[in-house]
Write a structure and sequence with these properties.
The chain has about 140 residues and is mainly alpha-helical. The chain contains six helices and two strands; from the N terminus they run αααββααα. The chain has a two-stranded antiparallel ribbon. A hairpin with a 5-residue loop joins strand 1 and strand 2. It is elongated and about 60 Å long. About 25% of the residues are buried. It comes from Alteraurantiacibacter lauratis.
Length: about 140
């Protein structure tokens, strides 16, 4: 399994936001999309697109106008890697056959593995849910020290 570039960029963006406005930054502080783009070296349009996606997922919130900017919607310790990936990629699943209505596999009628995929998917999601944004954001600071 490999994450899309957008999912990877979403994690990078959320880590930068957490360092500035999460439990690692000043409470209630905000950062602009332009500043996030500069810090992460991502193009501004990409960051703006991610802000929209992450806002719809309830992970960040934005405020327009003077004193506005982006901040985490909840503490960094309450946001997981699974939350961020699912915001961009949708539900975490290694195969499409577990999705309702997906009947496009030639092996569907005889597949003995299909009943086991939900267990695998739940294990993968569970592992990603154990990784908190606060831990990811802190790793860069600790490595620099």
């Amino acid at each position: 399994m490999r994450l899309s570039s957008m999912a990877d960029y979403a994690v990078v963006t959320m880590c930068a936001a957490a360092r500035h406005c999460g439990s690692l930054g000043a409470a209630g502080s905000r950062i602009s999309a332009a500043d996030l783009a500069a810090e992460t070296a991502l193009p501004l349009p990409t960051v703006q697109k991610l802000v929209t996606i992450l806002s719809k997922a309830g992970l960040i919130k934005g405020q327009r106008g003077a004193g506005g900017g982006i901040q985490l919607a909840r503490p960094a310790a309450a946001i997981t890697l699974a939350d961020i990936i699912e915001a961009v990629e949708g539900p975490i699943a290694l195969t499409a056959c577990v999705d309702a209505g997906k009947q496009d596999c030639a092996l569907e009628g005889t597949c003995n593995v299909r009943p086991h995929w939900p267990v695998v998917n739940d294990a993968l999601r569970g592992a990603l849910a154990q990784v908190k944004l606060s831990e990811l954001a802190r790793q860069k600071e600790e490595a620099a020290a």
